[in-house]
Amino acid sequence: MTDSALDAGGDQAAQVAGPHQASGSSASAPGAMPGALAVQAVDMTKRFPGVVANDHVSFEAAEGEVHALLGENGAGKTTLCNLLMGLYRPDEGKLSISGRAVRFHSPKDAQDAGIFMVHQHLRLVDSMTVAENVVLGWSKPRRLRFSPRKVEKAVAEAAERFQMPVDPKARIWQLSLGERQRVEILKALYRGAKILILDEPTTVLTPQEAEQLFSSVRDMAADGRTVIFISHKLPEVLAVADRVTILRQGRSITTVPTAGTDAEHLAGLMVGREVSLEATAKGSEEPGPVVLELAGVSARGDLGTEALKTVTFDVRAGEILGIAGVAGNGQRELAEVITGLRGTTAGEIRIGGTRLPMGDPRAAIDLGIAYVPEDRMGTGISPNLSIAENLMLKSYRGKTMRSGPVLSNRKANANAREMIKRFDVRAPGPRTLVRQLSGGNIQKVLLARELSSEPRVVVAASPTRGLDVGATQYVRQVLVETAQHGVAVLMVSEDLDEIFELSDRIAVFYNGKVVGIVPAAGANRQQIGLMMAGAA
Amino acid sequence: MNSNIVIAVLVSAIGFGTPLVLAGLGELLAERSGVLNLGVEGMMLMGAVTAFFVSQKTHGPTALVLLLAVLASMVAGSAMALIHAVLSITIRVNQIVSGLAVTIFAGIIGLSSYLGQVWNIGGVAGHHQFNGIDLFGLQNLPIVGPIIFSEDAFVYASWVLVLAVLYYLYRTRPGLYLRAVGENPAAADAMGINVTAYRYVHTLIGGALAGLGGAYFTLALAPIWTDGLTAGFGWIAIALVIFAFWRPDLLVLGAYLFGIFSALGPTLETRGITVLPSEFYSALPFLMTVIALAAASTSWANRRVGTPASLGIPYTREEG
Amino acid sequence: MTGPLHIERRLDTPKWLKVAVPFASILLAAIIVAILLAATGHNPFSTYHQMYSASVTADGALTSTFVYATPMLFTGLCAAFAFRMRTWNIGGEGQLYMGAVGASAVGLVLGDWPRPLLIIAMVIGGALAGMLWACIPALLRAYLRTNEILTSLMLNYVAGFFMYYLIYDSSSYWRDLTTPGASVFPTGKTLVANASWPGITIGTFTLPMGFILGVGLAVGLLVLIRSTRYGFEMRVMGDSPQAANYSGIRTKRKILSVMAISGGVAGIAGSSQIGDFGHVLDPRGLQQAQYGYTGIVVAALALYNPLAVVLVSLLIGGLTSAGFALEGPSFPTGLVGTMEGIILFTVLGGEILARYRIGLRHRAVTPASAGANFGTEVAP
After folding, report:
1. Which CATH number is correct for B5-304, 1.10.10, 1.20.58, 2.60.40, 1.10.3470?
2. What pTM did the predictor assign?
């Protein structure tokens, strides 16, 4: 199948490719790529009210090529993919697949043309089996009947053929994130994907799982497929891609082959100025006394299974303890237990020696625990309330926001104006609804509320997820400063780079247990990766 | 004597249970697509009144008249469901409020009552009704004969329908896609399944089945029209879906269990057995519903079995 | 979304639109009802004219409008208050029944108390009974997460049958067993004259005490929601229960207390039915009136604003009053509920549409709202 595509596609693509090259609108640098042109995007433009998300973006990728789209968060990568997938329609520009101009009206059209995407947030139905997910929406040959047994067999065969080992009868919620991603890829291959778009695929993987993914990606390319690899991480782009198209502020800057370039150069192109790849400066002061102590803490997860198993560690004043691990290994439950949102089944938690009552968020707040939750919009913020109201979400009980028995708008607004200034929140004013802010500004509102309460412990879960580079830097800076002021910081992150950059010590979680705690200085990345996978 | 009462209760329970089976299956399909429909009571009343109207005002062989009446009830039910679908799926009005609005619009002091009066069909006995069929000539068998083999065509149709829905949900592709739409519309959408279409279609089917459940009252159970004659059965049907954990097989069991609760009072009363006040028996199905809902939520809170994850949440592609 | 229309959220709804949309919605409803009337052989213009006169200008019409508006004001507040926090108390109907049972018990037992005290006791008795009845679904909701919509609704039926039992099928304290006629046609005991609530009479028009009490409650609830810590907690809970839990709000207690207040308000509707109007527990009359369910209509039309509930209760009260005055072949009873439903559809739809911009699908493609793109980088 893939061989014939290679043969037949060749001439056709060459014919169409010509004129566009001549028009000079393509930003690509013609490299000596193996196959014919698979994807050609020319001057794709997509506007949203007040912003041009894609501004004349052009790139092309050949059959058998791994083509990376590199850019910061907010550079327009995802918008571009949604255009390729038919989720959005371009305001301008042309898209050709295998040399044929196409206009997609829905993801179905794109899939019919052989384009599939593995989203960053996987699109799988958790309660269904792998096999059911693989055949979802796909009926070839066209028939009404659905036989679980036959489908499972077909999917098992496909899994073998594409070397994507996974149990077709397993339900998605039983799988690790790496396995779920494999199901998504299998889903695409099963449907005869010729072009596969992977959106930030390594975010949730251990370094070893990522290696495995890269090798699969190379295999798929060797089979003649085109893989479009979206990332903001330089090393992995260099490791896996043949060519890179760099996006910045909605524009395609240039396309370069990965051979003969390096991380510094790419980073410069990505950010638009010379950059040195240095980490946020960490304080090197000696940590103070123990503030947060966990002794043999166990807790159940949402499904009633044991999610934390006799977890014991402590965090000192002025220290950042990074919690590393693949998502779903008990980190969320850990954060919730410390902040009182989840009850425990055993063990105890002490704050400065005082025992924390279990499952009582108000007691945790009163003992000086601040929480920057992973699920900002769902948990940390009341999205349809104003900035001022969100900022008093934890202080409204006290006297500062009242005049007599009545809450004072004036005091709330004054407080909000001060916070907006101090934490550099970009917003029209204190009455603006939080829902209307950008991700970075929402996180600033959250940090403003949590840190202004002068906490003793800060629990931050994936504090920079989904933020652009500027906001990420800001949040990291604030966390480091907070620790320097003598606060005990517990930071949960799936991003190993972030863990290494900010932590003083690293605790690795696997299957609800602390596998090990190591000082960040001199920690071995590979070793941590193996611990995250439960192999060490 | 005692076993006679038991059989009498069971026979009557099938009667009371049938509208619950029909309306419950309809609600189950709608909820499986992610649409909570609180308009069932109103849809049942609309089905009941239109079915009775057609059966009274149409002339012809009984079978044909009843068929037309049944079809009319389904049209009436889905017309109400269409209002709910437009409001909740397209305009994204809160599904709870929209469903309640439909029940008020069509309900006891609403359109069904208005039509009953305009059509002038209130208070008179029906000309046509579904009668028991001696299935396979087995109606004289002891115990199972009167309970299973002498029901009317409506009841047999409801049993076929249960099997059809079971097959549809678990053994057909549209059924698989329906479950996916209710669980994770973004995933379904990404795979080219038309979420909006699935929701519309199943909400309308749900309305048609609710209408059918209403028609059972005026065409079989008690062929007469009075305002609000479904007497809360629509609400019990909604509750059934919850404690059947969104499964058609359990729903049928639940429906007949509630048929028993409903049948107990009338059966005992006609035999002159009055241990407890009749109001207690009348209230029994509703009390039991509260208890069953509470019981279902104890295990449900721990395991959350079956609730379609997107139930009650409008789908917009951008948020996926 | 694959429909022909696409709908996107406005960041700001212009002021004029907020005012214009409800009026346009009601106008649209009037047109739809007119079409329905014409289709069923009635003259819409004369019907509307009759309705206006029967609810406002005719002799005693305005008084009658207030008679119907008063219970709707309470049940409307009951629903509006609970719905504010997305606690769906559909049990106003049953809570009203229990309030009537409670208030009539108080009125019968304490008949020899001084009038002001007796009236206060009746208000409290009804409120407590309504509260207790509302606590059943509230407790189940708070501690087992049982769907309160269905449980509160089921209990309406149970309360109805309970009321019937008291008057028709038992020798209960509420039932009149002394007069000879009462053994054939069971009725409740009539309360002493002292237990009837005073109204304010101006000429032929009487303003019931209950309505004044209801307006007072509406103002009180508005203040509670808008400017107290209690109301702040309600707003957080209504918007995001997880955020409420996270910020240390005692969410279970909150559900209990909000449902209790809501049920209490509906209970006072029962008190007012006994004290202002009926002076006797009349199960059939209370059940036929469906004030509890109508309260949901009132609350939804008022967009859950307590002060707006006052105005809307008068509108729906007038509609209902006209319905009863005109009841007959040319104005069937069901028309009232039908009209309520149609007004609800247009107002609900209009309210949402005012917050969104609508366009045809092929012209533009939906962008993400500012909040929705968070974390997924849909659009920068």
Report:
1. 1.10.3470
2. 0.88
